[in-house]
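Q: My labmate handed me this sequence with no annotations at all. I'd like to see what the chain might look like in three dimensions before we decide whether it's worth expressing. Could you predict it?
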Amino acid sequence: IAHDFNNLLNGIFGNIDMAILAAGKSSEATPFLEEAMSVLDRAKDLTRQLLTFSKGGSPVKKTVKLKDTIIKAASFATKGSKTELYFSIPDDLWPCEVDANQIAQVIDNLCINAVQAMQNGGTLKIAASNLDTDNGEKSEAQSLPCIRISVQDSGQGIPQDIIPKIFDPFFTTKPNGNGLGLATVYSIINKHSGSVEVDSVTGQGTCFTIQLPAQPGKAETEKT
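A: Here is what I predict for the chain of 224 residues:
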């Protein structure tokens, strides 16, 4: 159903895009058409998350360096908010064999959650590093070389009794939430043979930590 609905949205998206071009920037209809495009973007994002739970959401993996992917996704997700965004990502971050679009969706979902937890503003720190298994550092998902990505906010935190449920599909504490954001994060990382953990203190903030298998020394097959 999600796949078929996504195809219908693509048809609507294309026709509205053509209508904007035909109307021109000076047309009174253009602002309304552009707003319709914005709503469609949100609808397409929802169907992408639904597709993650189906066969159609299987990752299309290529060897990439994720620094630019992480920065672009986080910057876009926090744009227009009161969030102060900080990055700590080395240039020599190991490549990973991943679906870059799906990893961008993970970062996007985590950042949106962070922004919503800091409605009056706050700091969001995103870091990434190589895990050197030769020095005894190992991923909980596996003992192969990995990269670690952390997304840490200064928001209201998550109550301890809720933490075991946050990755469950359709579980939400938000009045207008759909319960798919963190479930999608978990599903994507799981399909990439990685792990995701959360550490939160009520009133002090939340940190999500992701570990993904890395490919040290392997050349990129696609620029992100």
